[in-house]
Amino acid sequence: MPSRPLRYLPILMLFLILTALSGFIAHRLALQLGLAELQATGQHRLDLYTASLEREIGKYAFLPGTLALERDVLALLRQGKDARLTAQVNAYLEQLNDRAGTLSIYVIDTAGHVVASSNWRSADSFIGEDLAFRPYFLEAMESGSSNGRFFGIGTTRGEPGYYLASALADDATTLGVAVIKVSLEQFEKSWTTVEAPALVSDENGVVILSSVADWKFTTLRPLDDATRSAFDRTRQYNRRALTPLGLKALRELGHGAQLVSIARESPGMALPSPLAGRFLAQSRALPGTPWTLTVLSHLEQVDDIAQSRAAVAVAAAALLFLLGLIANQRRRHLRDRLAAREALQTAHDQLERKVDERTADLSAANQQLQDEIAERIRAERTLRAAQDGLVQAGKLAVIGQLSTGIAHELNQPLAALRTLSGNSVRFLDRGDLATTRTNLERIAQLVDRMGRITGQLRNFARKSSGQLQAVPLCRAIDNALALLEARLIQANAEVRRSCPLPEPVALCDVNRLEQVLINLIGNALDAMEGQDAPCIDIGCERIGRQARLTVRDYGPGLDDDAIQHLFEPFFTTKQAGVGLGLGLTISAGIIRDFGGTLAGANHPEGGAIFTLEIPLCDENEHND
Ligand code: ADP
Hints:
Elements lengths: L3 H4 L1 H53 L1 H4 L4 H9 L3 H18 L3 E6 L4 E4 L17 H9 L4 E6 L6 E11 L2 E10 L2 H5 L8 E4 L5 E4 L14 H10 L12 E8 L2 E6 L2 E2 L2 E2 L6 E9 L6 E7 L1 H131 L2 H29 L7 E4 H11 L1 H7 L2 E4 L7 E4 L1 H18 L7 E9 L2 E7 L7 H6 L17 H11 L3 E6 L5 E8 L2 H6 L1
Parallel strand pairs: 15-17
Antiparallel strand pairs: 1-2, 1-5, 3-4, 4-5, 6-7, 6-13, 8-9, 9-12, 10-11, 12-13, 14-16, 17-18, 18-20, 19-20
Helix pairs in contact: 2-9, 4-5, 9-10, 9-12, 9-13, 9-15, 11-13, 13-15
The protein binds adenosine-5'-diphosphate (ADP).
The site of adenosine-5'-diphosphate (ADP) has 19 residues, from α13 and α15.
């Protein structure tokens, strides 16, 4: 990416080119318009000056010819020198000159000598002067009519003027020439505007009339030697220096207009500012003369206007360019903002789409999870039902194990009852009522004992409600031991039990707790089978908010395999038909349902110890 200043270089270049171009075009247009305007004004002035000059000259055109009507004039020319006639004609000419307002009026004979003149009184009178070399004389003599027109400087007084000459003829003979010299000074004075000078040049390019006094008798173009010697001969400009004006053509514009420049300084002349510089020169030939009228219009003003318009155009272009730049900048800024907003919207849409997708995924996952949970709950229910079934099966198994003992337990009192009832009948026959009474009381005791045994068996076999309730733990131990009484007696086992006061009460199902205890005590008896004096320690204590029950035996203890797989279903080391390997699995499940734990370990002093912990009742805790 180009650095900042370099990036703006093309814009700066464009700015410079545009402003320069608009300045240039405005300058050119203003110049052209100004020139056209100047040309129109110049043309108007040209018309005006031409008309007034024609009028001025035409005013006197007839005058020389009228002298042919004067008898005395003709007589003087015819007769030659005659003092009286000369005096009369001189007086006449003097009068006429005064009336007509001309410079001088004089009459020349065919030889070229002045025979009479309006200025006869003055010392430098023309009378007697030889003017045969003057072109107007020659022309008039040649044509024999009033054709002699000439602008020149007087040879006597050196006074410039316009000469109108006319041949004076008597019948067909030319007797002489009448000449009127007119001053065009008044006419010149009407061109007073110095800023827009006007001039009349003759066929040789000599300025003969000019609004600028210094320009008079200067040349517009260089004179060749032939022309100069002709001037010497005719003394047209009375040997004036005729220096060049210093005018240089710059460009032709058509219709007699051109751009010219006049040098500020030329030999023998230093011009003030409005008379030097660049001009629009418009020329026109004056009808009836070989002269050219030229009006000059200074270009300074047009230049000034063109320059100021160019400056305005440059400023306007710069302003427009800057406004354009600002508008462009603003447009780009808006476009960037729009793009950013669109990008943001796109990102937002994408995010929303992703969130929707994720939400859909999440709800699908959630649904799946819910389905899984429902499945688990169903499985758990099935498991629980199966477990309940197992518990029941376990109970029935225990009952089966107990049945031999119980049958034996019931057989004994039944036999005693048979004997006692037979004896009682005999004692009654003998009339020994005291012995009969004693026998009956013994019978009642035996029946009670049998009722207790069957009641406990019924309680144990009953299906558990599943409802947890406050269970006094020592009573539960007693019930379990009562159910096992026959087995304990048969094995000649000693049971050592301790129970603290007050009796701990746990929140559980009494029926199931008894089942667990019967299982643990049964396993202990199995482990010590064959020992002479088997002994079982049953403990009950409070540990914080828990009740801890322990069943310890003095058997061989648990080997590594048994410790590893103790609570796994169908793990058993017992003979087929004796053990199913379900007792501890079911017991652990029951205790877990109570919110407690069951663990088996080897006692440090030998034998196995099973520890059972279940939560105490709140009420029980308060009592504590
Ligand atoms: P079963 O009694 O039907 O075998 P149990 O789950 O009650 O099933 O016991 C599993 C096994 O744990 C027993 O086979 C025995 O190997 C071991 N066991 C249980 N209690 C004791 C104990 N007090 N001493 C030694 N081993 C025991």
